[in-house]
Design goal:
Blueprint (H helix, E strand, L loop, with lengths): L16 E4 L6 H19 L5 E6 L5 H14 L3 E7 L2 H11 L3 E5 L8 E7 L8 H12 L9 E4 L3 H12 L7 E5 L9 H8 L2 E5 L17 H14 L3 E5 L6 E4 L5 E2 L1 H13 L6 E5 L5 H4 L1 H5 L3 E5 L3 H11 L3 E3 L5 E3 L10 H14 L4 H6 L5 E2 L9 H20 L3 E2 L2 E7 L4 E5 L4 E6 L6 E7 L3 H18 L10
Parallel strand pairs: 2-3, 2-4, 3-6, 7-8, 7-9, 12-13, 12-14
Antiparallel strand pairs: 1-5, 4-5, 9-10, 10-11, 14-15, 16-21, 17-18, 18-19, 19-20, 20-21
Helix pairs in contact: 1-2, 1-4, 5-6
Length: 484
């Protein structure tokens, strides 16, 4: 590989490509990524000049990265259609609306400043899965590039087409007062307009674009962002608060009392709301999600099935697609609505709209609707540092230990493990519905820990202590990003 091309192989992650810009990848590396992606698109579409939609998020360096990526794509013969400043879901929508062959969105989503990356996909509504990422990595690092004559066009004002599409389909009758928080990320130029357009009264919080993210990262799992939304909801006596991530494919929700509702619970409420109209449907949720789905009386009455699957927007999207599920819900705030509600991809604003429909359909406050769900005690998503090259091995070790404990009927807080799911890391459950999860993060050098108990806060903590103890004994764990 040419000396001035920098591209760290670890940046090719499970389904996203993410790097620290200039430290792990430079512009020449990005151009090569474009050549690799262009070559891959040609292989999969069997076209000499496939059309690819390209967009970028609002970070100070995203535009120069997009320019380098486009150079690489054009080198291979791709016809690039640049829709400018975008949300990831706007790029996905453009593939359907404009009938293109592939998409590439320059974004590091909610990662801190300094990170960059690309979300990409060929099959409509789906993003790269591990097989495609592996293939892309292979082509790019070995420089097995196809050559061609590409070209580029700018598509002006596509954001208006995207906004109108969501507004026209989703008008609501009730005047819902919503706080819309964007953490100064890209969603600021989309979410307030769309929610006003469907009929909400909107109170904006940090919706002006500022790529320094002066207050906090736009990340709806970040407690700082959620606390700020809660404060503004209470001050304004709002019906609900929404927090959007940096590229607009995720949403966090705060109820009228200023309490955070974890996204898996929101998903369950939406699933209940949909199940009466769409009986016999399937829903897909990730392994970080509440155990309530599997025993929910309303879903069972409507003959709906819930499948627990691998965490990660790309995995859940694909599973929703292959199972022909009505919707998929991920604990981190990615929601996927399949036809007739959406095209199967994750759109944080469409998710917020579905919550507005929930309020529009019921003459109740959000806090009343949520209180109809059985109460559970749940930790936030916690991520202890673990090196990229060690994290999967650590999880393998832990799986062996937990299977051993189950075999020997070892009790944790007075209960034995009754079920182990290893589709993604390890999720172990108990008779009372409590559970714990340990998995490797797919886009950062860390593990992911979640625990939940429908019985008590104490039990939730005991399960976490048990996990933390197992992890500390490996000697491979660093600081947690947040901890109960």
């Amino acid at each position: 590989m040419n000396q001035n091309i920098k591209i760290d192989p670890y940046g090719f992650r499970e389904y996203d490509a993410r790097w620290l810009y200039n430290k792990d990848i430079n512009l020449a590396g990005i151009a090569n990524l474009g050549k690799g992606l262009g070559t891959q698109i040609k292989i999969h579409t069997n076209k000499n000049n496939p059309r690819i939609i390209v967009g970028h998020d609002y970070r100070s360096y995203s535009e120069e990265i997009k320019t380098a990526l486009k150079q690489g794509l054009k080198f291979t013969g791709c016809y690039v259609e640049d829709i400018g400043l975008s949300l990831s879901p706007m790029v996905y929508f453009a593939q359907f609306n404009l009938g293109s062959d592939a998409v590439a969105m320059v974004t590091a989503s909610h990662n801190e400043n300094g990170w960059t990356g690309v979300k990409m996909g060929i099959q409509k509504g789906l993003t790269h899965a591990p097989e495609e990422m592996k293939e892309l990595k292979e082509i790019t690092l070995n420089e097995k590039f196809s050559k061609g004559e590409g070209k580029e066009i700018q598509i002006k004002d596509f954001n208006e087409i995207y906004k109108k599409d969501l507004i026209i389909k989703n008008k609501i009758k009730k005047k819902i007062k919503v706080v819309v928080a964007c953490g100064n990320g890209t969603a600021g130029v989309f979410a307030p307009d769309i929610l006003r357009g469907i009929g909400c009264e909107v109170i904006e919080l940090d919706c002006e674009l500022d790529w320094n993210f002066p207050k906090y990262n736009p990340n709806p799992e970040d407690l700082e962002m959620l606390h700020e939304i809660a404060r503004v909801v209470k001050e304004n006596n709002a019906d609900i608060g929404f927090g959007f991530d940096g590229d607009g494919d995720r949403v966090g929700v705060i109820d009228n009392n200023g309490n955070e509702i974890f996204s898996d619970k929101i998903g369950l409420l939406i699933a209940r709301n949909l199940s009466s109209k769409h009986k016999n449907s399937k829903f897909v949720v990730d392994v970080k999600s509440t155990g309530l789905y599997s025993k929910d009386k309303i879903l069972l009455e409507n003959n709906c099935e819930t499948i627990y699957w691998k965490t990660g927007h790309s995995h859940i999207k694909r599973k929703v697609n292959t199972e022909k599920a009505l919707a998929g819900f991920e604990k981190s705030g990615h929601f996927f609505f399949n036809q007739p509600l959406g095209f199967g991809y994750d759109d944080g604003i469409n998710s917020a709209i579905q919550v507005c429909h929930l309020l529009n359909n019921q003459n109740k406050k959000m806090s009343e609707i949520i209180s109809e769900l059985p109460n559970t005690f749940q930790t936030p998503t916690m991520a202890p540092y673990c090196k990229d090259e060690e994290k999967y091995l650590v999880v393998e070790q832990i799986i062996k230990k937990i299977k051993n404990l189950q075999r020997n009927n070892v009790e944790i807080d007075g209960q034995v493990i009754n079920n182990i799911l290893t589709v993604n890391g390890v999720r172990f459950s108990f008779d009372d519905g409590s559970w714990g999860l340990i998995r490797a993060s797919s886009n950062k050098p860390s593990l992911v820990i979640v625990t939940e108990s429908p019985t008590s806060d104490e039990r939730k903590k005991k399960i976490f202590d048990f996990i933390d103890d197992l992890l500390q004994k490996t000697g491979k764990i660093g600081e947690y990003d947040q901890k109960i």
